[in-house]
Structures are given as C-alpha cells and as structure tokens.
Amino acid sequence: MAHSNLPDGLHLDTLAVRTAVERSQYGENSEALYLTSGYVQSSAASSAARFAMEEEGFTYSRVGNPTVSSMEMRLAALEGTEAAIATSSGMSAVLLLGMALLKAGDHVICSQSVFGSVIPMFSREFAKFGVETTFVPQTDLAAWKAAVRPTTKLLFAETPTNPLTEVCDIQALADIAHNAGAFLAVDNCFATPVLQRPVRMGADFIIHSGTKFLDGQGRVMAGAICCTQKQRDEVFLPVIRTAGMVLAPFNAWVLLKGMETLAIRVKAQSASTLAVAQWLETQPQVARVFYPGLASHAQHELAMRQQSGCGGAVLSFEVKAADADAARKNAFHVLDSMQVLSLCTNLGDTKTLAAHPASTSHGRLTEVQRQAAGIGQGLIRVAVGLEYLDDITADLARGLNTL
Ligand SMILES: *Cc1c(COP(=O)(O)O)cnc(C)c1O
C-alpha cells in the first residue's frame, strides 16, 4: 500500500502521528475512516489482477482496508519492523500466529507466566491439532534451553508479564530460539514500543493486544503481529484472509488516533506507577509489591536495561493475610472500598483499573497452573492511569487502612 511520503530517520514520536497511507484526493489532515466492506474496481482486468495479488489495491475488507493499513504501518514504524498485520483482538493475533506458523507435530516452548488466555490457547486449542507445548518458568533460561526439541518451531514469551511483571531476557531467548532453528515471538503489550523494541533484541514476531495501551482509552478490541513484509504477505495474510479474524476499520481508526498519544501516556502513566509502587511498599498491610521499576524486583537491572530505564504502567501487590481464604477476603475488601478507581480487568487505560487476577484473568486456570504462575488469592493488579497521583493512592488506602 502506498505510504505517505516521509523522510528517513524520523523519531518514534513523529512516526506515531505521521505514518499512514497516502491522503485521499480531499487532503484530509486527520486520517480518514474508510468504513467500507468492498471497493469499486476500475476494470475487470484490474479486479482480476488485484484478487491474484499481482496489482496493489483494495478488493474486500477481509483482505485489506486503507484505515487498517494505516494502523498497521504506524504500529510497524513504532516497533521498527517492516510490516504489521492487524487482528480483531490480541488473542486472535496469537491464534493467527499459531495457525500460520505451526502444523501437527510441531513443538512450542511458552513461558508459564503469559497472559491467562494464552495458556489454554496453546495447551488446549493448538493441542487439538497435534501441536505440543512445553511451559517453562519465565526467567529460567536453562529450562527454556532444556525444553528444546528437534521439532521446536516457536518460543513464546511476554515481558513484563501479566500480572506479576516478571521480566525475561529477550536477547537470550532469541539466541536459544535461533540456535534451535525456531522463531521467537514476544508479546509487547505491557512495555509497548515506547519502552521496548523486541526486534532490536532479536525477536522475530511482536504480538500486540491493541485493546490496551495502543487504544489507550479502553474503547475497542484489537490486536496485531509485527513482522517482515515477506512474512506478512506470504505467511500471515493468506491465513487471515481465509480465516477472517480481521480488525474492523473503525477499531483500526481508534488505534491509529490512540497511537498518536502513546508515548506521552506511557511515560506519564509509568511515572505515576513507580510512585504508587513506592508508596505501596511502605504500607503495613501490603506483603509484597511486584514492579520492575523497584530495586526489590527480581529482574530490576535487566528491566531497566531492556525497557529504557522504565518499569511500565502496571504493578501488582499482595495484601497480607494468614491463609488463601483470608487473602481473597482482604483483596476483595480493598477492591470493594475503591470510590475512584475502576474494578475492571482491562489495562492500559487513562482510567486507573484494579483487578483480582486469581478470580478473573487467571480464573480459568487449574489451581496447579495458577500456583505455577504464582497468582495468589491476595494479589491485586493495578493498571495506573492519568488521574492525579494522590487521588490514586488515597483510593487504595481506603481499603488497606480498614483491613
Ligand atoms: C489483554 C492481553 C492479551 C489479549 O488481548 P485481547 O485484546 O484481550 O484479546 C494478550 N497479552 C497480554 C499481555 C494482554 O494483556
């Protein structure tokens, strides 16, 4: 698709507001929303050439749409990849990745700390089609290495993880993958390209849930895979145009505008998150705070090196309690006492959202899987938004102070 004409060497902040398909004949300054399913063809011959992928141009919005293309180009520019392919949600990006790359007999190595729905995607859905997955501890490089088999095709990691913010060494995982002749896919939803660009550290595919920071205001579902142009055209597009989990043009347009403010939002929300994390560490009712920006975090130094010196805008903390039942009760009390923050499982919103992972995002895991992922009943995840800092801490204090 024809790109708007931009000079080389532009900074991420500039690319985030400028990268898009060419303006239409009307010269609109804000990118157009092309809410159309089909496209009128100039001739039968041109239509045939477009359907055969021999001529550039749009035919049908399951195959391509200018607003979706703009969103894909903008995200690829931010991640530093040649291309991206948009999907209807973050999970459908994982589905597309698996459908396009894997076949019966292939083996996957996946972190056991990935987003809740990713685990059954591999262990249950892809397993039905003969793909076997080994789950390994996120930060144990020896375990990743030991899991490699001749049939290993894909390594899948997310860093920092949801909700414990465990950080893995992307470069080291890329080396393990490439030595095994496999690909590394990194879910970059938490850090976003503002803090971390995994392709620069050797990752082959970047997975996004656009539902989170790319939209940034909690409005739409969206997802994407960032990759090379050749992979987009030859590996992913043939699958998505058949399977159909494409991004709706309206949702793409929301993300396109969302990405314009991504950098300032992520930086401001991350600064507040560090302050909330430091405050939580001083609270007597709090057993532990999980945040890569804290010196107490197990991978603090790696995180600072890998994430532009920033911990990101999501933290988790555990309330003190005698046992699991009491922990759940205390966590529920803190969440039910909030008057400002939203009790909501999303993240990456301008509104601060708090949630109880053990009964929501990770509620479908078995108790064994949940314990392996380290998700206790007293754990609360906070995705910090743009409210005034003292209002956020005061709202958490309401419940904590009455435990
Ligand atoms: C939300 C999320 C997903 C799934 O994305 P959806 O848009 O909800 O389908 C995947 N990975 C991470 C890290 C997420 O936070």
From TrEMBL:
Recorded superkingdom? Bacteria
Q: So, what pathway does this thing act in?
A: Amino-acid biosynthesis; L-methionine biosynthesis via de novo pathway; L-homocysteine from O-succinyl-L-homoserine: step 1/1
Which family does the UniProt entry place this protein in?
Answer: Belongs to the trans-sulfuration enzymes family. MetZ subfamily.
Q: Which PROSITE patterns match?
A: CYS_MET_METAB_PP
| Complex and partners | Homotetramer.
Mind listing the UniProt keywords for this protein, alphabetically?
A: Amino-acid biosynthesis, Methionine biosynthesis, Pyridoxal phosphate, Transferase
InterPro entries from the UniProt entry: Cys/Met-Metab_PyrdxlP-dep_enz (IPR000277), Cys_met_metab_PP (IPR054542), O-succ-hSer_sulfhydrylase (IPR006234), PyrdxlP-dep_Trfase (IPR015424), PyrdxlP-dep_Trfase_major (IPR015421), PyrdxlP-dep_Trfase_small (IPR015422)
The record's section on PANTHER family has: CYSTATHIONINE GAMMA-LYASE, TRANS-SULFURATION ENZYME FAMILY MEMBER
EC number(s) per entry: 2.5.1.-
* Residue list for modification N6-(pyridoxal phosphate)lysine: K212
Q: Write down the HAMAP family for this protein, in alphabetical order.
A: MetZ
Role this protein plays: Catalyzes the formation of L-homocysteine from O-succinyl-L-homoserine (OSHS) and hydrogen sulfide.
Could you say which cofactors this protein requires?
Answer: pyridoxal 5'-phosphate
Gene3D superfamilies on file: Aspartate Aminotransferase, domain 1, Type I PLP-dependent aspartate aminotransferase-like (Major domain)
User: Catalysed reaction per UniProt?
Assistant: O-succinyl-L-homoserine + hydrogen sulfide = L-homocysteine + succinate
Give the Gene Ontology MF terms in alphabetical order: transferase activity
Q: What is this protein called?
A: O-succinylhomoserine sulfhydrylase
